[in-house]
Design goal:
Layout (H helix, E strand, L loop, with lengths): L3 E3 L3 H14 L1 H13 L1 H28 L1 E5 L2 E6 L5 E6 L3 E7 L2 H6 L2 E7 L12 E6 L2 H20 L4 H29 L1
Antiparallel strand pairs: 1-2, 2-3, 3-4, 5-6, 6-7
Helix pairs in contact: 1-3, 2-3
Length: 192
């Protein structure tokens, strides 16, 4: 199986920025009210908002660049993190569930999350994904690719695939048995 690199879409970064900006929109609104009452207080509130948002914007950019996902052979790999790095390698044959989630804002920008779980994930189904792929654009396509690799791997492991190889092995075994029987016959003829 060939290696496929899956990169998150820039729309996810925009979703994060909008999400965090909305949390601090009331502060900006209150500071506008303060502008009428006291321009100095408004300036301090606006400066505080900017001083909070600037590092947040820089951190979100760095976090977005750290996201890296790969479908390599019979494993799915994921890496992320700015200060605390996390790397997950999940064997495809252990994947039991692949979910897609995306909220209204993510749907607007055409991105979402893919959650890959194994039987040992713990908790109820969907409670905790062992690998979460963030900001994926073609959700259904990536999900189908992962599930296809799961099917191929499970078919290979159970022997449902490669019937010619099994038949060839059976043929070799039968040829060996036939050669052994002929050798036994020759030995019996010599003794008789």
């Amino acid at each position: 199986m060939n290696e496929i690199a899956v990169k998150p879409d820039r729309g996810q970064r925009t979703v994060w920025l909008i999400h965090w900006s909305l949390w601090f929109f009331p502060i900006l609104f209150c500071s506008l009210v303060l502008m009428v009452i006291n321009p100095l207080l408004f300036g301090l509130c606006a400066l505080g908002w900017i001083l909070f948002m600037l590092p947040l914007v820089l951190w979100l950019g760095a976090y977005f660049r750290s996201l890296d996902y790969t479908l390599a052979g019979d494993v799915v790999k994921g890496r992320r993190g700015v200060l605390f790095k996390r790397s997950v390698t999940m064997p495809v044959h252990k994947i039991t569930n692949v979910d897609i989630t995306h909220g209204p804002l993510q749907r607007k920008f055409g991105v979402g999350y893919i959650h890959c779980q194994t039987a040992g994930a713990g908790g109820q189904q969907g409670a905790r994904a062992e690998l979460k792929m963030e900001g994926i654009r073609d959700l259904e396509k990536v999900k189908d690719t992962i599930l296809e690799r799961v099917r191929e791997t499970s078919m290979t492991r159970t022997g449902a695939i490669k019937p010619q190889t099994a038949a060839a092995q059976d043929s070799n075994v039968m040829t060996d048995i036939l050669a052994e029987l002929r050798a036994i016959r020759e030995v019996l003829k010599e003794k008789a």
